[in-house]
């Protein structure tokens, strides 16, 4: 297995990042690669003495960043883990990560983010969004809540979506969940939330009893979900079908079900809005209180 890339964000509390990265590396039997970038606008300008002095100042600046990583690495190495550290001079975290991905292969990326329970909002940094939108690798955004001994994973899919690309993405999401379930001995459920409201509102002509329509719609989604699970070699009992507004229902179900990691898909580098029909993905993401694993198919 390739190393796990762990991005150290000086603006975040990285304790949970290193704890969870250490657990994953230990369980999966792989190496951790601790990585960060730094930039100082004053040092970026020409040094008042000479260019060589300016370069030494920048090297010293990066060296201090690397020293912080080495301190974290030592604690992880004391647990028997193999850890590599690297710090680079770069103004943009995503640019620095992207440059690294051009030269080395990793299994996935871990980065910390944070959630404010009082406001029921997750505050994603620009780096978080860059990773979710642009990273070709799975990205695990972790929060401060510690993991229990046995993880609960929820994979969000929409198998009724038409077209080949969405179907490929849904299958990739489920297979990713299946792999994590097996490797981490975790509990897995495959969640499909669909919204019947548009069918009711725009019925022409209006019907007094919509029960047959809602039942047919539920059956259509259930059959699609069962077919997806069968295609991925999973039993239908792992599927969970719920009717409701996805922007409200998905976060509530994850919270009520005590999910630690939700698995979602991003189809292209242009955005992550595909996995919900008629809703902005950001409205769901910022209400999710658990850790988020975003995967890509292209």
From TrEMBL:
Its main location: cytoplasm. The keyword Cytoplasm applies. GO terms for cellular component: cytoplasm. Keywords: Cytoplasm. The keyword Ribosomal protein does not apply. Residues 2-143, 182-296 form the UspA domain. It comes from the Bacteria. It is found in: Cytoplasm. InterPro entries: UspA. Belongs to the universal stress protein A family. Required for resistance to DNA-damaging agents. This is Universal stress protein. The lineage of its organism: Bacteria, Pseudomonadati, Pseudomonadota, Gammaproteobacteria, Oceanospirillales.
